[in-house]
């Protein structure tokens, strides 16, 4: 894998309803019962909190989590051979309810949520039951509209061959090895003008933090622009960090404590550390810690990777941590 490929930017399903077209179908037990065009939608399971989207390429399924709880699953269609959908961690860069393709004969792409400036996006499209797109992630029309309504610019999207169910990290009162949750909480409260329990999507700044074991460095990005960068010390440096995405949230109680929801993806679970152990091995320099503490808002994401940070594969306000490159 080349450096240029790196940086260019639940459990409750047992009682789910399937939606076929626009109507409800019978209850099902497993996502294996979903047929092309089907999806489940249960936002009431977790009414508020940050959204995370996981696209499983092998399963041709999209999983939606809010505050670490699975609220929806949908069938999808990713890129066909020669137009493979890149895998890795993305954030939603732009949203357009009535988008038309500039590459494919002005084709209608309803409910587009852009993931890269080079053309990869989530949007409504054909669903034959296998990968068929030119690199985008096709979704059922109704599902794409519902999803569009609960995401914001900056929402994390993980496209992967394998992923773990979310786990909570932060019971020790720390959001990083040397960043105490209570120290970050005041900054978080001041940065959340609608209160810590605000449920409505807002267009607040998108905060992303990337930590590379290869470079032993961290970068802090706000709306895609680097606002801080510095060295990190990593305990047991010869042990890989692994590929994790952490989404900052709060416990369910009013004014609840900050904690991370962590999702591992495309990693070897037999050789890596747990999400919690990985997080607390990381010790950023003081300037990075200060920048992080000032930006600890719900929905902030932190990504760990064993690939190098390489700025010549990152352009504009694009946040992409790729482990495969997009097809030419």
Automatic annotation (TrEMBL):
The active site is at 123 (proton donor/acceptor), 136 (nucleophile). Residues 51-160 form the L,D-TPase catalytic domain. InterPro entries: LD-transpeptidase, LD_TPept_cat_dom, Transpep_catalytic_dom, UCP029342. GO terms for molecular function: peptidoglycan L,D-transpeptidase activity; transferase activity. GO terms for biological process: cell wall organization; peptidoglycan-protein cross-linking; regulation of cell shape. It comes from the Bacteria. GO terms for cellular component: extracellular region. The keyword GTP-binding does not apply. Pathway: Cell wall biogenesis; peptidoglycan biosynthesis. Keywords: Cell shape, Cell wall biogenesis/degradation, Peptidoglycan synthesis, Transferase. Belongs to the YkuD family. PANTHER family: L,D-TRANSPEPTIDASE, L,D-TRANSPEPTIDASE YCIB-RELATED. This is L,D-TPase catalytic domain-containing protein.
């Amino acid at each position: 894998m080349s450096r240029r490929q790196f940086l260019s930017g639940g459990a409750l399903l047992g009682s789910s309803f399937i939606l076929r077209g626009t109507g409800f179908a019978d209850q099902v037990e497993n996502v294996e019962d979903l047929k092309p065009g089907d999806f489940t939608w249960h936002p009431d399971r977790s009414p508020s909190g940050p959204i995370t989207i996981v696209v499983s390429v092998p399963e041709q399924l999209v999983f939606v989590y809010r505050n670490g709880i699975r609220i929806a699953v949908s069938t999808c269609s990713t890129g066909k051979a020669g137009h493979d959908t890149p895998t890795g961690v993305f954030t939603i860069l732009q949203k357009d309810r009535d988008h038309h393709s500039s590459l494919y004969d002005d084709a209608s792409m309803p409910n587009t949520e852009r993931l890269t400036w080079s053309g990869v996006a989530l949007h409504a499209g054909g669903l034959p039951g296998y990968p068929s797109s030119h690199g985008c992630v096709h979704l059922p029309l109704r599902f794409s509209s519902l999803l569009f309504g609960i995401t914001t610019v900056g929402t994390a999207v993980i496209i992967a061959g394998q992923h773990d169910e979310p786990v909570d990290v932060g019971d020790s009162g720390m959001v990083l090895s040397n960043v105490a949750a209570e120290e970050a909480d005041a900054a978080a409260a001041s940065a959340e003008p609608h209160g810590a329990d605000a449920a409505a999507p807002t267009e607040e700044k998108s905060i992303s933090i990337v930590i590379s074991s290869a470079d032993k460095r961290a970068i802090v990005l706000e709306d895609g622009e680097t606002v801080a960068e510095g060295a990190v010390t990593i305990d047991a440096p010869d042990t890989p960090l692994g590929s994790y995405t952490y989404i900052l949230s709060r416990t369910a109680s009013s004014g609840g404590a900050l904690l991370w929801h962590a999702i591992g993806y495309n990693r070897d679970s037999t050789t890596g550390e747990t999400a919690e152990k990985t997080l607390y091995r990381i010790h950023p320099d003081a300037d990075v810690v200060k920048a992080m503490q000032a930006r600890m808002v719900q929905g902030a994401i932190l990504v760990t990777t064993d690939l190098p940070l390489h700025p010549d594969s990152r352009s504009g306000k694009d946040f992409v941590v790729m482990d495969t490159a997009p097809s030419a």
